[in-house]
Design a protein that fits this description.
The protein is an alpha+beta fold and 604 residues long. The protein has four domains: 94 residues; 173 residues, Tumour Suppressor Smad4 (Sandwich); 216 residues, Glycerol uptake facilitator protein (Up-down Bundle), CATH 1.20.1080; 58 residues, no CATH class. 45% of the residues lie in helices and 21% in strands. Strand 3, helix 2 and strand 4 form a beta-alpha-beta unit. Helix 13 packs antiparallel against helix 14 and helix 16 crosses helix 19. The termini are far apart.
């Protein structure tokens, strides 16, 4: 016996059905009566469908839902084609299966899935979504399954429904199987950072058997109880309506009624529970952090997630015997190379120098606010600095040499470019420590940042009692150290190793450190730019001078006094008058009180 149950605005479909079926058509109202074992075409809006289910769920019959504009929830819940003719053809060809379970939520029948929490954030347009991100925090929840498995977590929202429906909706989160009939499938969305929350907007839907991404958990059970831990009401979205409640009870409810669906794999009756929550915040510290503060820009790792790295950094922070021996050798080698003006010797000292280790540990201590690691690493850096200054100062005082070599002079005028090199070196060093595949022994980093040579030049300045030599080189050393700490700290933050309590404070302190060092570096950079400007203007001057070329050999600074060494190339020796005229032209481009030393060289 075929029956067509319709509402007033769908009765025009009767003729279509009667061409293919011997069918009785009846409108849906309170007086409707259906005989057991009937086959019923149902064309009701979503609200009337709920009333129909409530009235006839205990009746043994088969229901075939026909799509139209007012039943979108039914179409999604049972995977019914939105086109009437296509749906009817599938029913005729029997390309269907049947389900006899519906989701019950707080004693209400749900058509399709429900969401608990702040799901509306994800559904907003992109601009509104980005604005909402800045104030996001997670909700503290307790979840209990039918078999009394219980856990606490923090989540932005939970999406739950019949397993077949949820598998189709988020295939990438579920393993395909034939067991998709009796259980509720729930997806817990718990982004640990703004970037992870942003990724929710663009999660893949149809990639099978993908590993769960960070911040996503999945539960399958015949029954779930979700409770708010802080007593705040939860937003429950069910059948297109919003309800506020502190507890949400979900249950897969069996019926005598069977509803046709085009979902595949819904015939088996699997009831075994499945819980995959490894990517969720489940310890109390993380739950408190994510529920009481806005989401950080990047995820924060729990300490157990980087225990090996932390152990390594604690070891690097200590001044062991091996560390001290290497430091002494590298300082003496660097000081010797500076007096020899030998770049290879200085490079060898850079590679030997172990000073990078405690500085990277200090960077981690700063982002973690770890008092013990901070004391150990800071003590090692300070003692290493003092030892290096003492050794190089003693070396310089014992030698009778007092000539500033080119290698020494190179390290007395630091600029913002040196800070940039230190920042890049700090990024590489921190990444090398954090990534075992890269390794922490990055010789290129040690050579690039050159911690020991400027420290040795500062020691030489002490030994010679030359303040300008000391202050210029110690500024370069401090720029290197601060640049490394800042950059390494940022890398550790980006990798999720920052303190959960003091992320903002750590970033503020490092920013102040960089700002502090930028001021003197900018003053030094201005001098550097003045020199570069002079080089370019001399090049321009050469274009206006016939048969004569002016070339700057070098520029030296002694305090505020600049000396410019100039070579003038000409086909013959210049007369004093011609030489003075050229010097006068050069003086137009240099600061006042600059000494110009000219050497006239003939071309042959």
């Amino acid at each position: 016996m075929w029956l067509f149950v319709y509402q007033e605005d769908t009765k025009e479909y009767k003729d279509t059905l009667q061409k293919s079926f011997t069918i009785e058509s009846v409108p849906f109202d309170k007086r409707l009566s259906i005989q057991p074992n009937s086959k019923v075409f149902l064309m009701l809006d979503d609200e009337n469908f709920l009333a129909f289910v409530q009235k006839f769920s205990d009746l043994s019959c088969q229901i075939y839902i026909l799509p139209f504009a007012k039943n979108p929830l039914q179409q999604k819940a049972f995977n019914i084609p939105s086109n009437f003719d296509e749906a009817l053809q599938r029913y005729q060809e029997e390309k269907i299966a049947y389900t006899n379970t519906l989701l019950r939520c707080n004693e209400m029948t749900s058509i399709g899935c429900v969401t608990i929490g702040k799901s509306d954030v994800i559904q907003k347009d992109l601009l509104s979504f980005l604005k909402a991100l800045l104030s996001l925090h997670l909700l503290p929840l307790k979840i209990t399954t039918k078999e009394d498995q219980e856990f606490k977590s923090a989540a932005l929202f939970i999406e739950a429904g019949n397993e077949a429906l949820m598998t189709k909706k988020r295939l990438s989160f579920f393993k395909t199987s034939d067991n998709q009939c009796k259980r509720i499938a729930a997806i817990i969305y718990a982004p640990k950072s703004l970037l992870q929350a942003l990724r929710l907007k663009f999660l893949p839907k149809n990639q099978e058997n993908q590993p769960l991404p960070e911040g996503i958990g999945v539960i399958k059970s015949a029954k779930l109880l979700i409770t708010s831990l802080d007593g705040q009401a939860l937003d429950l979205h069910i059948n297109g309506k919003l309800v506020s409640t502190k507890n949400v009870e979900l249950e897969s409810k069996e019926m005598a009624m069977q509803i046709a669906t085009t979902f595949s794999c819904v015939s088996a009756e699997e009831t075994k529970e499945s819980i995959r929550i490894q990517k969720l915040p489940t310890n109390e510290e993380l739950i408190n952090f994510y529920t009481k503060k806005h989401l950080p820009l990047l995820p924060i790792a729990a300490e157990e997630d980087f225990a090996e790295l932390f152990t390594k950094l604690r070891q690097n922070a200590k001044m062991s015997v091996a560390y001290t021996v290497l430091l002494i050798i590298s300082v003496l080698m660097a000081t010797t190379g500076l007096f020899q003006n030998s770049a290879p010797t200085i490079i060898g000292a850079m590679i030997l120098a172990p000073l990078m280790g405690p500085i990277i540990s200090l960077a981690m201590a700063a982002v973690r606010f770890d008092a013990t690691l901070l004391r150990q690493s800071l003590k090692s850096v300070v003692l290493s600095t003092l030892l290096a200054l003492l050794l190089s100062a003693s070396f310089a005082a014992l030698l009778s040499l007092r000539h500033i070599t080119e290698q020494m002079a190179m390290r007395t005028h630091p600029t913002l470019l040196d800070l940039a090199v230190a920042i890049l070196a700090g990024i590489a060093a921190a990444y090398g420590h954090a990534n075992s595949k890269v390794g922490e022994s990055l010789a290129g980093v040690a050579i690039a940042v050159a911690l020991v040579p400027p420290l040795c030049v500062a020691g030489i300045g002490i030994g010679w009692m030359q303040p300008n030599l000391f202050f210029g080189s110690i500024l370069l050393f401090l720029a290197n150290v601060i640049g490394i700490i800042f950059a390494a700290g940022m890398v550790f933050y980006l990798l999720g190793f920052a303190s959960q309590k003091y992320v903002a404070a750590a970033f503020f302190i490092k920013t102040i450190m960089v700002a502090f060092i930028i001021i003197p570096l900018w003053l030094s950079t201005r001098t550097f730019l003045t020199e570069e400007n002079l080089y370019s203007k001399i090049a321009l001057l050469n274009k206006n001078i016939d048969s004569t070329t002016i070339q700057i050999e070098k520029i030296t600074l002694q305090g505020n006094h600049m000396e410019v060494y100039v070579d003038i190339f000409a086909s013959k020796r210049l007369s004093p008058t011609t030489k003075q005229a050229l010097i006068k032209k050069i003086k137009k481009f240099v600061p006042p009180h600059t000494t110009i030393i000219v050497s006239n060289k003939e071309r042959y």
